[in-house]
């Protein structure tokens, strides 16, 4: 139950924080949620990782699909050297997931000490 509550809380607070703060505010949110809700470090990492992976993946796909992946085609050619908007969306989601996962892991370790 703590896992689902943490997951939902990270997603909702990250959406609210990113409206007014920079993109890295997801790390602050994941850190605070993991510090306040006690879980073992592995579950805390997974909670932060999955929450932002899903959030950024779905938001990236939604934004990209609104313009028929036009910009994603061009950016994927520049960054990934291949024409794959889906791979760009996955890379975006993984980046956010890793940032939030490691922040949640840090929050969990802070709680343990």
SSE topology sketch:
Blueprint: H1 2-20, H2 25-36, H3 41-66, H4 70-79, H5 85-112
Shape: elongated
* Distance separating the two termini: 23 Å
- What percentage of amino acids are in beta strands? under 5%
Would you list the SSEs in sequence order as H and E? HHHHH
Q: Could you list the spans in which at least 5 consecutive residues all have pLDDT below 50?
A: none
Q: What is the arithmetic mean of pLDDT?
A: 93
Major sheet description: none
Return Rg in Å: 15 Å
Number of helices: 5
Number of strands: 0
User: In which range does the helix fraction lie?
Assistant: over 70%
Q: Specify the structural class.
A: mainly alpha
What does this entry look like structurally?
The protein has 113 residues and is mainly α. 84% of the residues lie in helices and 0% in strands. The protein contains 5 helices and no strands. The longest helix has 28 residues, at 85-112. It is elongated and about 45 Å long. The mean pLDDT is 93.
In short:
The protein has helices spanning 2-20, 25-36, 41-66, 70-79, 85-112. The protein has 113 residues and is mainly α.
Record keyword descriptors for this entry:
single chain; 113 residues; mainly alpha; 5 helices
